[in-house]
Design a protein that fits this description.
With 344 residues, the protein is an alpha+beta fold. The chain has helices spanning 4-14, 60-67, 72-86, 91-99, 103-106, 121-124, 157-163, 167-181, 189-199, 204-210, 238-248, 272-285, 314-338, and strands spanning 27-34, 40-47, 56-58, 110-116, 130-132, 135-146, 149-154, 184-188, 221-225, 252-258, 261-266, 298-301, 306-309.
Length: 344
């Protein structure tokens, strides 16, 4: 059986033999892509001759199929089929790739996304962003969407410099555009469950009985956007949170469910440390590493219309980061001391 590195090399070498004649001149490369939270995926790009678009197919999942007993050539056939399907980019993606250098062409397509600061420090160093407690707002340009999701290009420092704009200008545009392109949604968990069971065929009256209304300050509310993609950024739209807090008559605790949504509850609903423990348990068992946002709980103060950490403080978090770094460096030093040195 091939190891993963051999699988990558083999895929790169034979993929063209599994694709149609019109892709015979394509350039095929392997590359590593760092995703959210530092997750590294290993891909193969297929750039058709004469095209400036090169779709990437991630090989990690295909290698797992091979490990699980799928025939190697069958796996390569599936990779080739995906490459062929995506080789011709939608016109809108090709157009924006060509005109990306012109700020006027992209300024109305800039949106904001929220990520974990500590887990993305290396990525954040190369892009405009705003820190909000232990989170950071980053910015992307939307280049199309379909039933599979939304295609975006992350804005890097070099883009911003080429456009001649400031981080503040990028942020202000993103705040306005995201409201329009990805409107905020606020739904009670009961409402979501009723809709879900209704789609499965449950009669409305039965669903009403199962999920009867409760006082607002005893319910959980899911805050996201209409696409349910990268909707956690909606937690930074004070108007939506203020409206919910006003109806409840209390401040809010915000639980980061994932990068796609957050859950808001009344501050009457529990202790922030206990809620944070629940968030950690969910992250540990139910949310993929790439989609995790934070292990902490936030408080929305309805009076000041501001968000802050509820179960800890930034000072405490920085102390932990510093402590972990010192421990890591000490371990590295010991390991290096015990390891033979080879000089050339």
């Amino acid at each position: 059986m091939l190891n993963f590195e051999e699988f990558q090399d083999y895929t790169k070498r034979v993929l063209k033999d599994h694709m149609p004649e019109e892709l015979a001149g394509a350039t095929i490369r392997t590359n590593d892509v760092t995703k959210n939270n530092g997750l590294v995926l290993h891909g193969v790009t297929v750039q058709p001759e004469g095209s400036n678009i090169a779709p990437t197919i991630y090989l990690d999942g295909y290698y797992k199929e091979y490990e699980d007993g799928e025939k190697l050539e069958d796996v390569i056939d599936r990779i080739a089929s995906v490459a062929e399907k995506n080789a011709k980019a939608p016109a809108e993606i090709g157009d924006i790739a060509k005109s990306f250098i012109n700020f006027e062409n992209v300024k109305d397509k800039i949106i904001m996304v929220v990520v974990n600061t500590e887990k993305n420090r290396e990525m954040l160093a190369g892009m405009p962003h705003q820190n909000r407690e232990d989170l950071s707002l980053i910015y992307k340009v939307t280049v199309g969407s379909d039933e599979r999701g939304m295609a975006t290009i992350a804005i890097k420092n070099e883009h911003m410099e080429a456009w001649g704009v400031t981080p503040e200008e990028i942020h202000n545009l993103a705040m306005e555009n995201t409201k329009e392109l990805l409107p905020v949604t606020v739904q009670s968990m009961n409402e979501i469950m009723r809709e879900m069971f209704g789609r499965d065929g449950m009669p409305d009256d039965m669903a009403e009985l199962m999920f009867e209304e409760m006082p607002m300050n005893q319910q959980m509310y899911v805050i996201s956007n209409e696409s349910r993609i990268n909707g956690a950024a909606a937690m930074f739209y004070e108007d939506a949170l203020s409206g919910l807090a006003e109806q409840m008559g209390t401040d809010l605790f915000i639980l980061p469910s994932s990068v796609h949504e957050v859950i808001a509850v009344s501050t009457d609903m529990g202790d922030p440390e206990q809620l944070a423990e629940m968030v950690r348990e969910v992250n540990g068992g139910e949310v993929s590493a790439e989609e995790q946002l934070s292990d902490h709980v936030y408080r929305f103060d309805a009076t000041s219309r501001s968000i802050s950490l509820a179960d800890t403080t930034m000072e405490q978090l920085m102390d932990k980061v510093s402590e972990n770094t010192q421990n890591y460096e000490a371990t590295q030093t010991m390991s290096e001391g015990n390891r033979p040195h080879h000089r050339r």
